[in-house]
Amino acid sequence: MEHQRRWQGWVLVGPALLVTLALFAAPMVMVVLTSLYRRSGGLTDRTLSFDNYIRLATDSTIHQALWNSIEVVALTVIFSTLIAYPFAYIVAHKIPQKWQALVLLLTVVPFWTSYVVRSYSWLLVLAKNGVINQALVSWGIIAEPFTMANTRFATVLAFVHFFVMVSTLTIYASLRQIPRNLGLAARDLGASPLSVFLRITLPLSIPGVVVGAFLTFVLAIGDYITPQIVGGGNELVLPQLLMLQVSRMGAFPLAAAMALVLLIIVGAVYAVSAKNLTLERKR
Amino acid sequence: MNGAELNVVDVVKQYPDHRALDGVSLTVEAGSYTVILGPSGSGKTTLLAILGGFAEPSSGHIEVDGQDVTTLTPSQRPTTTVFQDYALFPHMTVGQNVGFGLEMKKVGKKARVERVREVLEMVGLGHTANRHIAELSGGQRQRIALARALIVEPRVLLLDEPLGALDLKLRRQMQDELTRIHRSVGTTFVHVTHDQEEAMSLADNIVVLRDGRIEDMGSPERLYLDPATAFSAKFMGDSNVVSGTVRSDGTTADTPWGVVALPGSSSAGTPVTLSIRPEHLVEGSSGAGNLGEWEVMEAHFLGQKHRLIVRRGEHELLVSLPQSSNVRQGDSIVLGVDAHMAKLVKGDPS
Amino acid sequence: MKLVRSGLSWVYVLLIFGFILMPVVSLVVFSFQATNLPVPPFTGPSLRWYEALFADSRMIEALRNSIVVGVVSGFFSTALGFLAAYGLARYRPRGARAIRAIVMTPLGVSYLVIGFGLSVTANELALGRSLVLVTLGHIIINLPLAFAIVLSQMRDEDENLEKAARDLGAGEWTVITRVAIPVLLPGIMAAFLLSFTLSWDEFIIAFFLADFDVTLPIEIWSQLRTGLDAKTNAAGTLVFAISLVALTLAYVLNRAVSQRSRRL
Quick one: pLDDT band at residue A283, thresholds 50, 70, 90? Predict the structure, then answer.
């Protein structure tokens, strides 16, 4: 009886597995294969070689793009976390229970607008004749509008705007998981409110911070739209370089190698943080 | 460490939709083990929170050894609370948990480690200082919570249903532990529970709360053998409660069950309510009461005694007969009351 | 002191809210701009850009394509995810851990890489780009999420309902359609609506796999490259409005369904 049930289980799970195989595993294998091909005279040469990887290891433009990616994403993670943590803390502890869900919902509102349009909105806001510059000039804070758009600063700003939402949610979830009694017990034993935060709340909310940071990292490092729209063509990040290979140069093999590098980076970060990537309460 | 005397003076706690505590006043003797007993909704948890400083009374005040502590925060009061779910810090070791209070008092590491070891020994968990909370069982966590609270030498220890999460056997064990620790430490213990057996086995003094008011208060013996109200009689174990009227002789009362002897004398015609415990009903009529014939509906042998449910018409009685009795279901028996064990109580039988 | 700290908290919250909501507010406000550029000063209100939007046949077609792709890919990801979650939770096949890992893996890969991989594969198989490929791409990115959501909703108590049904003679198919799905409906709907929402605004995979029939994000992107005007604001606001409708629908349906099942 058990035997038959197990077998039936496979029938139900089968379609999902097959789809994953066909639409994910197979393409990934193709990417690996393609990265070993070469491009010569506008056609793909299918002899296996490591040319692309050698190129990756030696080409300084690629190194620069990789470095830009890491910098931008690191700055994004840091600033998103720094801004999101106090915000999540205030929502979790200072705002009355019944309003908390509403406040969080409002926080997530930008997520429901079009990503492409939102990125363009940032371009307009940061432009030389955009809202910020106009306001700063009319208030006399600066004499002339300065360049904010098409810079790394713009990319980070646009990223932070989005990822503050993500980290706020994960940190909030983590804070809410902390039993209220812990703070009460600590106070009972003589702890000041600051001690309660530093010794109890902060350590127990770290999982939320880590999950948020991880999600931010993974999503940001593979993002093409925001850097392309607001960051401009000056300091390219890896996704932009990849797209360049694909669209303008049709250099699929090199692009495939870059895609693998992206995968490896994400995989490495995951391996390092896997242990902490759970919002479940420690019992 | 000696315990403090606790005074609750006319404490009222009013919420928008109900009154949790309605003028509660009591004195907890220094060094005693006092249990606050009551069903859910009786206000016992609210009272404990007010004693611990986690809630403020709407009116009234709390004194510890004569000093008014009503407006003091939990850390400023000489009380410490053991929470129902223990509230142990999951990210710290046993030693760090237990030593937390001393850390907050800026006690040096060496002295702290030593004290932690001492207190852990006292609760029977001597070598667990470096273990993590997650590795411990329910009973062990209970003791750690206790150790953490006792290490700061509170004058009054407050316990909020500490044994609720434990299974029966463990609960009995922990009751003995609590008694032992209380005796060796000498601090005043105030323990909140809904379990009447637990209250009787631990307490020097029991306070029965109902709907925010004190229903009855006294030693376990007094509360059990001479309950003040019908509610208290039925809450502290089983009891048969009935209303009647005092007869012309002034020493007995007429009840729907039969004639019952009163514990003292009263003026004829006075309405009274009587409580008779199952074990105080005897086979055969007696001088203290003649309740006539009853039909045995159910009879269970429980080892130490027989538990019977008897009926006559619309009346039912719960009876405990000694081990030697051989009454069976379907039998008919005559019941009397043992000596003067029918007690006058306030309140109505329902 | 407490009041100052309280005040500071409110200031911070308002600042952050301002930061977060400003682009959205600016987006919606300037969709009603009367002049060309969606920058201050505000010269509206005017509906000219909404008119232009609805007169733009490419945009409307792209909108329609997005909805179709969203619904179809949402349906399949949810259906496959549900079956897999149900099979895993109830039948406990051997290698359950591995199955779970395999289905969830696409979550860890950037959309960029997935889109690129699919386009390279399509190339090798001489498959032309099309909306069908886009749909397939959206199925694979949403399948892990639908699976995870439904799986998280499967409780042991519900299994007893199914066992009771089986005990009373119901066949497997009946158990699934008449017992399991109704009980899990809130989770299934949540999975569908999430899949729809993620597919609907998805750019990079669609970009790799679409041909001349494009989805809305791609159309907006193309139009923005050629010229900037407030019509894209109108498009963005429209996307926002539709997402809000979907959200509200999800909330209302969820409440209705869970209330019904709670009455059991």
Answer: very low
CATH architecture, domain defined by A60-276: Orthogonal Bundle (1.10)
* Angle between the N-to-C axes of helices C181-200 and C231-262, in degrees from 0 to 180, rounded to the nearest 10: 170
How do residues B69-119 score in pLDDT, each as one tens digit?
999 999 999 999 999 999 999 999 999 999 999 999 999 999 999 999 999
Give me the CATH code for the B6-232 domain, please: 3.40.50.300
Closest CB to C40 among A118, A134, A161? A134
Please answer yes or no on whether A282 and B104 come within 8 Å at the CB atom: no
Distance in angstroms (rounded) separating the CA atoms of residues C9 and A90: 7
Higher pLDDT, A259 or A101: A259
Nearest CA in chain A to C245: A112
Contact C139 A23 (CB under 8 A): yes
**Residue of A174, A182, A184, A189 to mutate for B, most B C-beta atoms under 10 A:** A189
Determine which helix (DSSP H) or strand (DSSP E) holds A225, and give its type and residue range. Answer: helix A225-226
pLDDT tens track for A158-192: 999 999 999 999 999 999 989 999 999 999 999 99
Domain boundaries along the sequence of chain B: 6-232, 238-344
ipTM rounded to 2 decimals:
0.85
**Between chains, do A281 and B87 touch, taking CB under 8 Å as contact?**
no
- Whether residue C95 has pLDDT greater than 70: yes
Pick the CATH number of B238-344 from 2.40.50.100, 3.40.47.10, 2.40.50.140, 2.40.50.180: 2.40.50.140
Domain segments of chain A as ranges: 60-276
Mutate to test the interface with B, among A177, A180, A181, A188 (most CBs of B within 10 A): A188
